Amino acid sequence: MTHKDKDQDKGPHKAEGAGPEAARKAEAMADLGAAFRGLGGFVEMLGTLVEKAEDIERQGEFKVKGLGDQARGVYGFSVRTGIGGVPQVRRFGNLNTGPKGPVVEDVREPLVDVFDEADEVIVTAEIPGVAENEISLALDGNHLALATTGRHRYAK
Q1: Same domain, residue pair 20 and 82
Q2: 5 has a pLDDT exceeding 60
């Protein structure tokens, strides 16, 4: 992207000759694009962490103008350095890239840790804002599925 392109990309976008609905959608897409550009700092930090062999977790949240509470983006990642210094990077949240650009999903993907102990497997999932009666688990062989209902929806 050239310096000129960066300058043109700032601020709300308006659709030429379109109604207010098209202008709101264009502004929302510009906000999502800005969020993805902000993730570039995360990528740089990941490279530094891998070099230093540190463990870290970062997350964030943002709202998209013009779309109300329906479009709340949550994103994050976790970097853990395992045995032998091999880093494991795990992404979580409801912000994904679709064929037409950034997409905010209704269902979030929680951050999950699995501990394979001698006589049991322990699974922990970060699902803030969810009551115990809103959690459903299904075990099929070696596959465990987690889903939640209610205001905060998660699935893994």
Answers
A1: yes
A2: no
What is the pTM assigned to this prediction?
A: 0.41
**135 is written with which tokens?**
């959690």
| Residues 97, 29 share a domain | yes
What is the tally of structural domains in the chain? 2
pLDDT digits (tens, 9 = 90+) for 21-41: 666 556 655 555 555 555 556
Non-local (6+) Cβ contacts of 27 within 8 A are: 12, 13, 14, 65, 66
CB count in 10 Å sphere of residue 95: 24
Pairing outcome for strands 56-63 and 72-81: antiparallel
Same domain, 127 and 144: yes
Q: Could you tell me if 96 and 154 lie in one domain? A: no
Quick check: 134 pLDDT over 90? yes
Domain of 20, in residue numbers? 3-101
